[in-house]
Amino acid sequence: MSPPTSRGLNARSVTRLAALALAVLSLLVYIDYRKDLRQAQARVATGSRIADTACGPIEYAAGGRGPAVMVVHGAGGGFDQGMLFSDDLVDQGYRVIAMSRFGYLRTPMPEDASAVAQAEAHACLLDALKIDSAALIGVSAGAPSAVQFALRHPARTTALVLLVPAIYAPRPGNAPPLKTPSGTRLLFDTALRSDFRMWAGLKVARRSMIDSILATPPEVVAHASSNEQMRAAQLLDMILPVSRRREGLINDAEVTSHLPRYELERIVAPTLAISVRDDQFGTFDGARYSASHIPNARFVGFENGGHVWIGHQQAVVAELSGFLLAEIPRRD
């Protein structure tokens, strides 16, 4: 047997060094991932309570005093997403209640998780909190159950806000009311299946995440103010831990893929619908259609800003505040 050549030794050394470097890099990535995941888990482990309701356990958070405003979060959310609205509304004299809908965080997924069942769960939560009536803000995939609540409990609905709502709109050729941005289905099959995949996507493919998850043109975020860029980043990062939201996400996809036309003409609550024309989920048409069929409803539309209304946060807050103040004046 001939002795190994220096060339063979060098090649072997390079391979070992490459393997060592890869192992070190993998360890560093794992440490970074575990740190971020622990922070996300700690964030959703505080600030909420579990209400024992007639509809089962429901996680919720609340803040402020005054007339009740229930925030019904969108896909990928939970009580934490809903409470993003709390500061502005609490400062204006309202009591904000934000639940985690079925399949999100600590609210379990029941056998029936339809929009109607979700609406009844909203009523059950109000019962448990001894609240007679509330204004509802239905955001994105939270809109179907907010509308159902207004239809089924008109005396308990002081006002209704549909914000970038996932709701019916007639389309040519019976096309689905909502649109699906390119890459969204792929995310459901990959990143949304695990916390690590979601985390990795947020780290290395943030632009694609903005496009597919926030349904917002990435260039809109790139040209936005630093405050709005931070808000977009917060909304993305809040999806972690996705493993504790996946059941809710899957259910929302099912509910919003078969949106019927609700009896909008029977809604008696004062209604405000807000959307953005370049929302890549296509909620602009549904919001405008709903406002045109709900008696005395008002529609506010923005030309750009995507599904999370980048560049219009202050305007949206002003519209919400003015509407609520006009319809359910706070008690000073």
Describe the structure.
The chain is an alpha/beta fold and 332 residues long. The chain has two domains: 207 residues, Alpha/Beta hydrolase fold, catalytic domain (Rossmann fold), CATH 3.40.50; 60 residues, no CATH class. It is built from 13 helices and eight strands. β5, α5 and β6 form a beta-alpha-beta unit. The protein is globular and about 80 Å long. The termini are far apart. The mean pLDDT is 91.
Describe, in short, the structure shown.
With 332 residues, the protein is α/β, with parallel strands linked by helices.
Number of extended strands:
8
Q: Give the distance, in angstroms, between the N- and C-terminal Cα atoms.
A: 95 Å
What structural class do you assign from the helix and strand content? alpha/beta
Q: Going across the major beta sheet, what is the strand order?
A: 1-2-4-3-5-6-7-8
Largest sheet: 8 strands, mixed
Mean pLDDT value:
91
CATH structural architecture of the largest domain: 3-Layer(aba) Sandwich
Radius of gyration: 23 Å
State the helicity in percent bands.
40-55%
